[in-house]
Amino acid sequence: MVIGPGNRWTFRAEPEGEAEAPLEPPFGSSGMLARLWRWLLAGYHHARRTIETTERMRWIREGFRRLEARSDPSESLLRRMRTATDVVLVYPEPLSAALVRRRFLRFLRRRARAHARGMVLNALLLPVTAAMAILPGPNVFFAWNVYRLIAHALARQGARRVLRGECALRVHAVAEADAVANVSSSASRAVRDEG
Prior knowledge:
This protein is of the alpha+beta class. The protein contains five helices and six strands, in the order E-E-H-H-H-E-H-H-E-E-E. The protein has a four-stranded mixed sheet with strand order 4-3-5-6, with helices on one face. Strand 5 and strand 6 form a beta hairpin. Helix 3 crosses helix 5. The protein is elongated.
């Protein structure tokens, strides 16, 4: 755990593949929007898998990683929390458990609001980026916009799960100065909190 300038606490996970658990649409489980949401989400997971595993897409993978590096570093942690059974925050001993829990929940509320704003912005840009299909070549603007819309939705859902109490939040003190957030699902995995 790093406390940055202005006493700002941030949390982020190491880059790692995400579990592909089903995600219910935020607007109901039936209807045209729900089918569109499931189609977009399946496309999102398929594109990520293809980009990460295909050697001939190495140049796309490198460009994709550069673009993702400009995104909020805590997104990976938030997306993993949507399938987690519990979250364990390991923090340095001089801090109190109540302070760490309070700061983490404040961080989650702040990130959930930011991702909600990002979802609205990307949804408003969908028609504009879709209209760019008239340009020759692949419509990378639309693809990136859809990717960001889904990434915002997944991160917001992960934060909201913990805030609603659907995922247990535990804190544990250690002697080391760096803290680790452990997000476990069916298979326990450690997630380093660097930010």
